[in-house]
Amino acid sequence: MRTNIIRHESMMVSYDVVNGWVVAEVDGEVDAHTAPLIRDAVIKLLDEGHRHFVLDLGFVTFMDSMGLGAMVAITKRIREREGSLRIASVSGRVLRLFELSRMRESYDIYPSTAEAVQTAPSPGSLARWPHPSPG
């Protein structure tokens, strides 16, 4: 059952748990006003005991450097809890932002949420973050 965790005038976040993953779907703009809300929502879910996340960015209409900063902050928090993070359904525009910031190789990015949740999470998968595993 999908649960709304953020409702803002330019963005909404809802989540569901699928195959051991918290799938957080972000809908709208991720900027200086909304990025802290997303970060705080993920931290709240971590505090509730969740450890493994898929961020579905398929409905993100805009993301700026503050959005990328929130991604880094979220990743650090998940890593501290020995969790895992996958990113799914990234639009070409948002993917380009990851590439320009040289963050593309630091994340596991999947074409769809269905593909991201296909395999169960493995604790500690962020141990080598922000550098990808060799091979």
TrEMBL record:
InterPro entries, per database record: Anti-sigma_ant, STAS_dom, STAS_dom_sf
PROSITE patterns, alphabetized: STAS
Pfam families: STAS (PF01740)
STAS domain segment(s): 11-120
Stated family: Belongs to the anti-sigma-factor antagonist family.
Name by which UniProt lists this protein: Anti-sigma factor antagonist
Lineage: Bacteria, Bacillati, Actinomycetota, Actinomycetes, Kitasatosporales
